[in-house]
């Protein structure tokens, strides 16, 4: 399967709580190309729900990623989960999605709203197997739903907690909550308005609408996860001149031939590319930031920035996902935005030493270019699940 599988989620906590009662976990195996994600909804809300949902989601991730059969994993979870004696229900519900590198997906659902599959801008109805569970409650039969399907390019798989489907319940517009046909129509509408809408944006749209149904005060934890199968979005980042000047032409050729977004970090690197493709560099004088050097523009490049200082600040901001989202527009925010909108990032790093960076007045933590780039690479892989490669010149 040559497609990239994008996974993201959005969440709003119950308005009266300071901690979510829904938990979403995601893991991506770089070697096997396998993705496992779990959404668990703890009974009620607040701390107790959070603990139980965390327990359920953690077990789901651990068992499933350990290559245990997904059905066996779910059955063990059900045996482990505590039960509410008064309401005669489990303390957590869950959805587990396991996708291999070929796009084959196994989905287990227990008491969460059913997932929605969109293909060719239509809702696809899927067959599922019912798996009876041991009778833990007299007079009540529990069951798991197991679905197997082959995901195709441009497919979208959406699943959510009942905070979405029950949003607006009791209001004049949604007396019984946000019913499934209405949710499906809303999803199709969002996709028709923006054909390549990302998993992140789609999940945010759904959660935003559910919150609107609740008149902007969530009556329950609202969580939605989305999976989008599509062509990978690639980014090339060049930084630093090659140690051998004869390799300048290799740097230029990589820049010209690359299919995707292109970023140049470093004045000397930009000059090499500018000379190689005969294009001028124009500094963006509108950017006024005392800490971040301004970005520049050059035909053929999506972004041109200063080198070490910008990369160092970018690494700091990437560590905290929330810190950069509220930043004013500058070179760092532009670079992070390009990272976030890419799936595969290829770094080509020149290893010629820049004497300016040996100045003892420059903070020690800035370090060398390769150290900073390796830090960014690690953060992108571990925190944002990006695929990265690194080449030195």
Report on this model:
There is one protein chain. This protein has 393 residues and is of the alpha+beta class. The protein folds into two domains: 4-230, Phosphatase 2c, domain 1, CATH 3.60.40; 234-392, no CATH class. The chain contains eleven helices and 20 strands. The strands form five sheets. Strands 2-3-6-7-11-10 form a six-stranded antiparallel beta sheet, covered by helices on one side. A hairpin with a 4-residue loop joins β2 and β3 (34-42). α6 crosses α7, α8 crosses α10 (331-340) and α8 packs parallel to α11 (369-382). It is elongated, with a radius of gyration of 24 Å. The chain starts with a strand and ends with a strand. 41% of the residues are buried.
SSE arrangement:
Elements: E1 4-12, E2 22-29, E3 34-42, H1 46-65, H2 70-80, E4 83-84, E5 89-90, E6 92-99, E7 104-110, E8 116-119, E9 122-124, E10 129-132, E11 143-150, E12 156-160, H3 162-165, H4 180-193, H5 199-213, E13 222-230, E14 234-239, H6 248-257, E15 261-265, H7 267-277, E16 282-283, E17 296-297, E18 303-305, H8 308-319, H9 321-325, H10 331-340, E19 344-349, H11 369-382, E20 387-392
Summarize this structure briefly.
This protein has 393 residues and is of the alpha+beta class. It has helices at residues 46-65, 70-80, 162-165, 180-193, 199-213, 248-257, 267-277, 308-319, 321-325, 331-340, 369-382; strands at 4-12, 22-29, 34-42, 83-84, 89-90, 92-99, 104-110, 116-119, 122-124, 129-132, 143-150, 156-160, 222-230, 234-239, 261-265, 282-283, 296-297, 303-305, 344-349, 387-392. It has eleven helices and 20 strands.
